[in-house]
Amino acid sequence: MRNVLTLFCCSVLLAAAADGPIDMDHPNPQAVGMREEALANIPIRMNEFVQAGKTAGVVTIVARHGRVASFETAGYSDIEKKVPMRKDTIFRIASLTKPITCAAIMILVDEGRLSLIDPVEKYLPEYRGLKLNPCGSRAGYSCQSVQPSRPINIEQLMAHTSGLPSSAPSGHGGAPRTLAELVAQGAKSELLFEPGSEWNYSNIGIDILGRLVEVISGKPFDAFLRERIFAPLGMDDTFFAVPAEKQNRVATLYTYENGGPKAVAAEWGTGNGRDIPSPAGGLLSTASDLLRFNQMMCNSGTLAGHRILSSAAVHLMTISHTGKLKAGWAPGVGHGYGYEVVNDVTGMYRYNSLGTFVKGGAYRTYEFVDPQKDLVGIILMQRASGGSDTGDEINSFMQISAAAIADGADQ
Staple 78 to which of 48, 83, 326, 342, CB 3.0 to 4.6 Å? Predict the structure, then answer.
């Protein structure tokens, strides 16, 4: 049923509007069945958070039926220099990189170059013979490693059910200089559980996906994304390493300390201290670029005449693959490929419909696509502390966006 709604709401209703470039400059809420006076609560509420010192600045964008209904800014991209937040401010999007990495894998699946059930070791021999620690991550236990009953496969990397830890173990040959070296370090890990049996958020698992893209396509990961996703979608401000001429548009990173924002050091490029194009969390982007990507996902794989993914690939990415396992960071979600998916009534308390797919990043960057409401939203900040996926700013933004729907499609 959810897939039928997705195809109907996000393909049929949007066909005329979404098959052309998205007009970012002329928001028109009435044209898409939304109340302008209700959407006006978004900048009011975001400015309240800025004035309270909860965040330095915010950019938000809401689209429905493939057209922008609201595009707003609040606060500063740099408090100390009094640089106002702009619509084209560039943010470290952290884990919002993950759905893009999973989309790259699904492009290769669409082309028949790999299968999601392929074992990782088929393409990365260093992952052959990976061991399992029966004690998992429990401290205070000493267990002898054993052979798992099955090797990890690509699907399990996508859904975070591989058993791999959060990150690659350190102390194996020094700091990695390439994605290949980073992923090779990950092969020194011990699995925390039998592949497919539990859920554990694994950044190294997503990094492996990026390396698989390199091995199978024969292209550097960042070049593959540029050619197959960013260029066709017009995502001209999305990078692992921001060009010198655009670095003045990158927002300062803050933490929350002593009741207000405090600037913290952050590298250009990945923002994680490495020069590696990190598939798990290294991209920088803008609200408008992220809208283009997520609108493509809402449109079952197409935007502006460009098909990036098959509708079958989008369907697999945006349904839960974790069953009854406890998964994800927000209430009422399971995990798809890159995205979390609302699959329980508790996930509707923020006015999400069942089937909404969402993703949050460590710096309070967040995106959601609600196929039933035909609604896409992006909210971007640069705050390095605090509950990202359920931050007050995010909750308010999602609720106001859905509450602004005027034409009855609000369930």
Answer: 83
